[in-house]
Amino acid sequence: MTKPLPLDGIRVVDFTQVMMGPCATQMLGDYGAEVIKIERPGAGDLSRSSIPDDPGGLDSAVFRSLNRNKRSIALDTRGPAGKQIALDLIRRADVVCSNFRPGVMERMGFGYQALRAINPRIVYAFGSGFGPTGPNAHKGGQDVLAQAVSGVMHRRSDMDGPMSVYPTALADYSAGMHMVQGVLLALIQRDKTGEGQEINVSLYNSMLAMQMQEAAAWMMLKRELNWGAMPLSGVFATRDGALVMVGAFKANPLQDICRALAIEDLSASPDFDSFPKLVQNRARIQAVFRQRFAAETTAHWLARLEEQDLLCAPVRNMAEALADPQTAANRMVMEVADGSNGSMKLVGSPIDMGDAPIRRARPPLLGQDGRAILQELGYPPERIAQLVTDKVVA
Fold first, then answer.
1. pTM score over 0.90
2. Annotated catalytic residue 172
3. What is the DSSP code string of 150-174?
């Protein structure tokens, strides 16, 4: 007998698009929630066409990576008929998620107070760039902007090097996971109070929260904390690639590094015999490391470092990481049926629940579930046909 999933019976009305909101609602769907994605007729979620890479005319890999285990209705909510359908869905829902700029849902008629009036149990999760109030609330939010204004982009391993964009969407993913946490906490609290509530998450807050250690060091000590600039750590080119080494969490890591590199014990030098001196002379000691690592292969140095129980790893590209046996052991690549096209491979959930295996429904085509959703709401066939004719539902 199949065990129920944790979120079986939870209904989510999903107005989100791009990444922050969709990665949140996807995780809710992974573990049993019924997620109904409301999309614009003819276009849908912006990420459907963000990378038009499929010669078969299907949605982009980006969209498919973020929208499994959802149903799609293409709904024009600008008129009263479309708005009424959305409200009918929300009346029977547990959760509403959105990530438009502050004020957009209110202008559409779907602000929290309006929805609470028809469904006091609704959990209303709203994600934005900067939060619902404050001097930047009105601004459009985006991952790279959040990296910049939160201090993340300014801090880098080599402070003499140029600032750059981190190439993975840190803010979108972290804010999406905070949205999931907020929804689950609100559902638990609703069990105690009987009432829903509004939840706000933002890219900006998530990036600040990610830097809790660095922020505390500055607020308490007026000191910059930069884990990437530690004197005995770094990324080093080898004869056939690159590796990363973390020289920390040991009584005398420099001595062990020198043993691994087969060089004299630099920890005995008066220039390197304390942490402040290592910080002061970081450029010199890193130059020694670079010269030694460049002389041999990655495999050679990893073996030498591991003999000294030093933290190290090869620097891999995406293809190598996905092919790693550890990725397979962790079941982090999943196959999802793709209709007539066979199957697609997607990155799975990082949460491994032994009694709650992840669902595997394919990402929906735009509007593919619209008629079925209207039938479930009790709309008669003639009314559904008229809504299609009127282009309220595509």
1. yes
2. yes
3. TTTTT--SSTTSPP---SS-HHHHH
